[in-house]
Every structure is written in structure tokens, then in C-alpha cells.
Amino acid sequence: MTFLAKNILQFSRLISLMMVAFYFFGCKSTASTQTVDVLVLGGGTGGTAAAIQAGRMGVATILIEPGPWLGGMLTAAGVSAVDGNHRLPAGIWYEFREALRDHYGGAKALETGWVSNTQFEPHVGADIFYYMAEVIPSLQLWLESRWTNIEKTADGWLVTATRKDGSIQQIKAKILIDGTDLGDAAAAAGAGFDLGMDARAYSGEAIAPEQANDIIQDLTFTAILKDYGPGSDRTIPRPEGYDSTLFLCSCQTLCNTEEKTHPCETMMSYAKLPNEKYLINWPLRGNDIYLDLVEKTPEQRDSLLQSAKLKTLQFIYFIQKDLGYKNLGLADDEFPTADLLPIIPYHREGRRVHGLARINIHHLTDPYTQQLSLYRTGLAVGDYPVDHHHKERPDAPDIAFPPVPSFNIPGGCLIPKGVDNLLVADKAISVTNVVNGSSRLQPVILQVGQAAGLMAALAAKRNITPSALPVRMVQDTMMFYNGYLLPFIDVPSDTSDFDAIQRIGATGILRGRGVPYQWANQTWFDPDSLLTGGALREGLSGWPGADSHLSLLPEGKQPVSGEQLAQLITALAGNPDLGNKIRSESDFDGSQPVTRRQAAVLLDRYWDPFHLFPVDWSGKILE
């Protein structure tokens, strides 16, 4: 057990006596029915985070997961090389990463491959999620159980499920959360959704294809190989239909074409894991595959996925026989499966619900100039570029994705339109097909799930639907649980001014500077730069009551002095007494220019526009 897990257990014992009475009153059982506040269907990456967050907030919660593990793509699918957010350690993503570092002995111990700064063995991640969840008194884990029916009721939901022991139970829940990879629960609950590539007229993206289609991204049945030592021969039996020519140009050694390929050693070290293991998740003539299975039955999906498993086995055989890595064999200490392959496939895309808000590529590239100021409602952040896998569908329209800065996910993307008491916690959030290429990555989905669980708990406690929650209350609570509202890379969460800068950033009064940068995009707040009159004028333009006071500020790139800022805040707040309070601040010097950090702190402390001017889920200011 990790040090973090032991601490969680100790903490749990302290709080359990206080929570147990609430739990038994909040979760009533009969022979076949339980009543809870929050029901999470699917223990994927987002569903796991949602259940943990809801349970930690003291609401009676059940998580139903058909497999034996929690964590979804991070664990059960074997995608244990984390993509993105290395410098944006928000919420449960930060907690999970710290537990990994604790287990392996530090951050450097996770830097085993070149694709990621955080790589780990899937079973270790699964253990960490289980320890995080099992210590929560108000959270029940129904593993190896399946939901079979969802009904809407006057006050929530009635869900039928089959437990591991074969018993059939019903759960009455106030709030339902979809924690599935493909949006199965949201669809069954009646949420509208998109599937496939959007038409440009529909998505508002000039780079989208002219006509919509039903093509989604390729999926992968990954594998974990282990080095069994020099002289070992772990070559698997020749898979059915094996054809080495399919894989010759997966790397350079045997490729006799002009394709741009990596050296084979580079391919193998791509996602090397601790303890001499290797994640096989290679998109370049490797083990990606296209399967049309989103709207199929579970039985049909299982049948189709056999071809994905077969292709991965063929690729492994190629690695062993043709490339000579005979000492690398399927790890026998990872997955509890007969074939030693992961429990589930890695789905990159499925349904995308119609939410109260939807972001397209323009909300990523230029968030401050869009018709809807959705950035004001952010609950999660990401920094990965737009990355689609379509090499197994050569007929998919070729899209030239633009570079993007880091971005946030608006809360309205988690709330399906027209269906009360329903939230989405995984990749089925309301984004366009293009944006899915950035929003689908593991750290983003951990935060999305945490936000969904948080909103569910807040709504259940207040007996309201999530769409009725005040946006700023949700954001305040998210920050209390170490979340980010905006992806400011230069204001770490452990700095004293983090909350103030996040709040002012979420108003748009002081805006971030987006910088596309390789595979780790950025947004800078520039806290120690001088605040210019032009920047503050731009941010305040259109704010209720602000335009008449902009004459107090200099124009263009001229810096704002402490006295000018004090006069402005006094005027905006309509309180003459504030001026002297601001001037009495220990670091205040009215004759000197103020930095953006100082301005954010003073605006937040003495005017507080974040709370004074609430916004709705579209980012509109509610005067």
C-alpha cells in the first residue's frame, strides 16, 4: 500500500464516525432497491473521479462498473502513459500523480519513456484508484456489475442493475452521471448527441468537412510487454492471418518505402514503463484499428473487438519475430485476463452529448473573442494539441488542425441539454469532433469527472438539477478541491495568489496570453509584468457600470499606476472608503506601476467582480 493510501485510510477512520449516521439515513436499502443521491454508471477515468468526488462531499453514491478495475483508459485499457497537463496538476489528477510518484520513488522514476512525463504500470494505477475510493464511507463500489435499464422519474432516476452475484437490484437516484467511454448511459437516459465528424456549417469550424459523416477515431487494444531477460524467448504462437507486410513500416528497420518512420528502438521506448515494461499503443502502422461499434449491443461489441485483439497480437508477433525482441512477452502480472491483454479497449471517441454549452476549435484558439464567453465558466483545463487517429480509415476527410494554446472546459459541456439531473463525466462531453482530439486525454477527463461529481453532490444536497447551480459557487468549490478554472502555466496552485488570479482570470478582466507549444501548449498570465491601461480597458469594456470609469486609466501600453488602480476600484465599487484601504496595503505605492499580479489581488479583494457579477452557463453576466 502506498504512503498516500495509508494516509487516506487514517483520515477515513477519523471522519467515518461523523459520516456513518448520514450515510445510513442518506442510503436506504430494501430487499431489492437502494435510494442514493448520486449514481455513476461506468468506472472509467471520469466516472471514477466523479464517484470519488461525490463521495468525499458526503452524498450517498453508488458506482456501477462492469469490469473488475476502476480507472478506465488509464488502467483497464492500459493507456498508462499520460498525455498532457504535466505543468497543470489540477485536482484529482494531481492527487493521482502524487500517489504514483510516492509509489515509485519520485517524479524521475515515472519518466521512463519519451512520450510522457508520467508512465506507470496499469495495475498500480488501478490499486491507487481503488484505495482512493474504498475509504469513502458514503461510496459503494459495484464492480463486475452492469446496469440494464434507465428510467426517468419525477424526482430523479430509477436504474436496474445486475450485480456480480447475479442478483438484480434497482437504484433510485437524484442525480445520474454517465461515466462510460462511449456515452452509453447518457444516450439511454434520453440525451441528444452527435456521432462522427461534424459538418462545418453545424460546428462553425471552417476546417471541418463540408458534409458530416459517422467516422470516429480509431481505437486500440493496447498491450503491456515485459522484458523477461536475455536469452528468454516469449514469442507468442503465430496469430491467425498474420501478414508481416502490414507492420513493416511501423519503424525503420524493415521499411523499404519512403514513409517517414521512427527507428525501431524509438518505437519501443515510446511508452516504456517502470520495471522494464512496454506499453504497445503505436498508431503508425501498429495496432490502431477502426471499428464501428458505438451503437452496437454489448455482445456485438465483444465480437467486433476480437479483431482488435487479433491485430494487437499480430503486431506483438511482428515485434518478437521480425524485429527480434523475443525477450519481450505479454506481462503476466498486469491484467486479470486469460489472454493477458487489457480488460477493455482504448476508445478515443464515441458519442458527444448536446450540452448547455459546446466548444469548437475557436474557443480553444481564441477564447476571448467568441460570441459566448464560455471561458468564464471553466471547470477543467488541458494543454494537449488536437490529435486525431484516422490512419485506419483512409477515406476520412483530411483536416489540417491548427495549433492551439492550453484551454479550459466550460461547465455547461458536462450538462446535457433538455434532460434534468444528468451529467457527463468522460469523453462524451459537449464538444465538436475536432475539439475531442484535445479534450479526450486522461488528465482532462479526470478533472471533468471530478467536476461532474462535484456538481452532482452540490445539486443533490440542494434538491435542484445541476443546470440550476450557480456557476460561481461550482467554481469556488472546484478550487477548494484544488481545481483550475483557467490554465495559467505561470501561476502554480501552491502560490498564495492562485485563487485571486483564477477568479479574475475567469471574469476576463485580466486575460491570459495563449502560446501553442509543441505537445504541451501554454497560457501565460504574466503575473509579474506591468499592467497596461490598454489591457485593463479591454478587459473591462462592456462590464456593467465600467465604461464610464475607463477614463481613469491610461491608454495603450502605458502602465497603470497604483493610484490610478485605487481610484478605478473605488469608482467601480461605488465606495469612497475603499481608496484609503487600498492605499494602506503594505506593498502599495501609488506612484509606481502595478504588476498584473498586484492588480488581480486588489481587484479581487476590494471589488470582487467574480462574485458580484454572476454568470450563467453560457458565460453571460447576470446583471
Strand content: 5-15%
Q: Tell me about the biggest sheet?
A: 8 strands, mixed
Question: How many angstroms does the end-to-end distance come to?
Answer: 52 Å
Q: Low-confidence parts, pLDDT < 50 over ≥5 residues?
A: 1-31
Shape: globular
CA radius of gyration: 25 Å
Look at the helices and sheets and give the structural class: alpha+beta
- Helix tally? 18
Helix content: 25-40%
Estimate the mean pLDDT confidence: 94
**DSSP strand count:** 20
Properties at a glance:
single chain; 623 residues; alpha+beta; four-stranded antiparallel beta sheet; 14% strand; disordered N terminus
Give the helices and strands, then pairings:
Layout: H1 3-26, E1 28-29, E2 33-41, H2 45-56, E3 61-65, H3 91-104, H4 122-134, E4 139-143, E5 146-153, E6 156-162, E7 168-178, H5 184-188, E8 193-194, H6 200-203, E9 219-220, E10 223-227, H7 264-269, E11 272-273, E12 277-280, E13 288-289, H8 298-322, E14 328-330, E15 352-353, H9 361-365, E16 378-382, E17 407-410, E18 422-424, H10 433-439, H11 442-462, H12 471-480, H13 498-507, E19 513-515, E20 522-524, H14 533-540, H15 562-573, H16 578-583, H17 596-606, H18 609-612
Parallel strand pairs: 2-3, 2-7, 3-4, 7-18
Antiparallel strand pairs: 1-2, 5-6, 6-7, 8-15, 9-13, 10-12, 10-14, 11-12, 16-17, 19-20
Structure in words:
There is one protein chain. By secondary structure, this protein is an alpha+beta fold. The chain is built from 18 helices and 20 strands. The chain has helices at residues 3-26, 45-56, 91-104, 122-134, 184-188, 200-203, 264-269, 298-322, 361-365, 433-439, 442-462, 471-480, 498-507, 533-540, 562-573, 578-583, 596-606, 609-612; strands at 28-29, 33-41, 61-65, 139-143, 146-153, 156-162, 168-178, 193-194, 219-220, 223-227, 272-273, 277-280, 288-289, 328-330, 352-353, 378-382, 407-410, 422-424, 513-515, 522-524. Strands 1, 2, 3, 4, 5, 6, 7 and 18 form an eight-stranded mixed sheet that branches. A hairpin with a 3-residue loop joins β1 (28-29) and β2 (33-41). α15 (562-573) packs parallel to α17 (596-606).
